[in-house]
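Input record, target 12 of the design panel.
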């Protein structure tokens, strides 16, 4: 009995672990042929009807599928993971185009996310999703104007897919270029300092030998040219484009 007791104990703990990881996750609602799911009951019926008609018309004309899910709480789940699971279960967008999008709102957690299918990421970029959330929807949600905020989000998502809503220059991330400019500036300063030091050494040594004086600057110029060449190779070899790939989990999240 004493030997078998620990075995049953570990088996019991194992089954508890499996149960928690399998069944304790927040349930994903069925699609049930609806594009707008207000699980938190915060939208007016007229708003839901308006959005349903608007999204159906948009789908009929473009084949793009957009859906809305509003929940009370994430119940401990991570917004990005939960949103992706919903989009994958609902299979938004066509199989050939992957042209679906999902707007998820968690009221009690004050979190929201725009999940974008691969086929729409070229127009509905992460930067645009971030701008929609940050600049357009968040102010409305902070006033508890949820109907206004959801309407605005869907309107701008549709406009973005048509190219009618674009990111401002200030919305683009220039961090990479700033870092490159700083590094390039430091390289230039280092080259100048190196050139001055090398020239000083050559002028102080054997001033009577003109050939020696002429050789050092040439070496300096060659070294300088080589370093500039290496700098150019490093620049061209680095990737500064960004955002051109096809990947799952595209979109942006935000809080209010």
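The sequence produced for target 12 reads:
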């Amino acid at each position: 009995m004493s030997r078998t007791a620990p075995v049953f104990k570990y088996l019991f703990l194992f089954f508890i672990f499996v149960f928690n990881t399998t069944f304790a996750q927040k349930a994903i609602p069925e699609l049930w042929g609806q594009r707008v799911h207000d699980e938190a009951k915060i939208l007016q019926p007229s708003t839901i009807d308006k959005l349903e008609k608007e999204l159906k018309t948009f789908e009929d004309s473009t084949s793009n599928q957009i859906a809305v899910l509003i929940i009370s709480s994430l119940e401990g789940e991570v917004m990005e993971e939960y949103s992706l699971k919903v989009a994958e279960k609902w299979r938004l967008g066509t199989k050939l185009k992957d042209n679906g999008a999902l707007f998820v709102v968690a009221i009690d957690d004050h979190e929201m996310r725009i999940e974008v299918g691969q086929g729409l990421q070229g127009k509905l970029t992460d930067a645009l999703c971030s701008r929609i959330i940050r600049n357009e929807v968040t102010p409305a949600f902070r006033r508890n104007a949820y109907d206004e905020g959801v309407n605005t989000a869907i309107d701008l998502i549709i406009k973005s897919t048509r190219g009618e809503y674009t990111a401002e220059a200030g919305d683009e991330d220039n961090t990479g270029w700033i870092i490159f400019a700083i590094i390039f500036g430091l390289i230039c300063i280092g080259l100048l300092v190196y050139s001055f030091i090398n020239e000083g050494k050559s002028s102080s040594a054997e001033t009577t030998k003109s050939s020696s004086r002429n050789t050092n600057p040439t070496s300096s110029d060659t070294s300088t040219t080589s370093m500039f060449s290496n700098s150019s190779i490093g620049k061209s070899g680095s990737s500064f484009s960004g955002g051109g790939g096809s990947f799952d989990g595209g979109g942006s999240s935000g809080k209010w």
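The CA atoms of residues 53 and 145 lie 21 Å apart.
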